[in-house]
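quick q for whoever's on today - can somebody do inverse folding on this one?? i tried earlier but teh output was garbage lol. tokens:
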């Protein structure tokens, strides 16, 4: 009988700490390719899997490990894959799986694709519960221009863009970027930082920048502010700023960035954000510190 109880105890301890359905956040940003020897557009895919949705398997006393398989694809209209990759991601080992906040998993890919229409597919599967998976599909349209001023996609950041960054998948325009997964600004995130690039601006031309936040369903802006920058000769003009969210109520918002002269609108770009001060959100990944 004692042997049976010992066997039952070992069996229970080896069972995984079950979680709910896994979740996948996919963020995509399009940039102009500054390498003139290679035709196409730069596309960045940033995938985040929140840790609280994962299943943790006991590996040793007070040591629990989770793992997921992430499949990323970019598919052409004819069904052919322009890009495909399968990645295994594992968070740090936990000693206590009852903690409300767990480490999220992140993966970022930067690649060059020609103009065209595509679909991005992301599939995440819990390795310890094969039936638990999440699929996300997003449209992707790439169209480059050589003459008119234009903005890249707006990258929403969890921290200020830091100057002096080494070249990596986490840096652009000399800035280190820590992305805000899913554009979610949750508990403790009272500031929004952003990064975008202005192309085809006349060198040394001063342009006005306007930033507007409007809540979904509203006809007026909840927040509006302005700035200025000058076009850089021979390269994109990086734009980085911060917005104070502390006085905004929870909800979904559209962030609009405008580039103007005194008389006309030169370029505009928008992004969706969600302010959720009562929730926890997965932290953004950044380049490892040395």
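ok took a stab at it. sequence:
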């Amino acid at each position: 009988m004692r042997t049976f109880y010992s066997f039952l105890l070992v069996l229970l301890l080896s069972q995984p700490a079950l979680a709910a359905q896994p979740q996948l956040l996919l963020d995509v940003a399009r940039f102009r390719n500054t390498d003139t020897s290679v035709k196409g557009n730069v596309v960045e895919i940033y995938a985040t899997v929140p840790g609280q949705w994962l299943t943790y398997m006991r590996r040793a006393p007070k040591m629990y490990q989770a793992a997921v398989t992430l499949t990323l694809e970019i598919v052409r209209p004819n069904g052919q894959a322009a890009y495909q990759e399968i990645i295994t991601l594992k968070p740090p080992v936990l000693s206590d799986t009852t903690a409300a906040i767990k480490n999220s998993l992140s993966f970022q890919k930067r690649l060059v694709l020609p103009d065209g229409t595509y679909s991005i597919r992301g599939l995440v599967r819990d390795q310890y519960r094969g039936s638990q998976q999440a699929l996300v599909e997003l449209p992707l349209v790439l169209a480059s221009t050589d003459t008119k001023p234009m903005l890249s996609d707006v990258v929403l950041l969890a921290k200020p863009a830091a100057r002096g960054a080494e070249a990596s998948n986490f840096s652009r325009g000399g800035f280190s970027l820590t992305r805000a997964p899913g554009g979610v600004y949750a508990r403790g995130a009272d500031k929004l930082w952003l990064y975008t690039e202005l192309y085809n601006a006349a060198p040394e031309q001063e342009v006005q920048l306007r930033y507007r936040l409007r809540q979904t369903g509203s006809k007026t802006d909840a927040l509006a502010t302005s700035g200025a920058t000058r076009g850089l000769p021979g390269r994109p003009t990086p734009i980085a700023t911060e917005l104070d969210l502390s006085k905004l109520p929870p909800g979904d918002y559209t962030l609009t960035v405008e580039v103007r002269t005194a008389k006309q609108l030169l370029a505009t770009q928008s992004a969706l954000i969600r302010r959720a001060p009562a929730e926890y959100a997965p932290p953004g990944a950044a380049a490892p510190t040395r």
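fwiw Confidence is low (pLDDT under 50) at residues 1-15. also The CA atoms of residues 162 and 270 lie 22 Å apart. so keep that in mind when u check it
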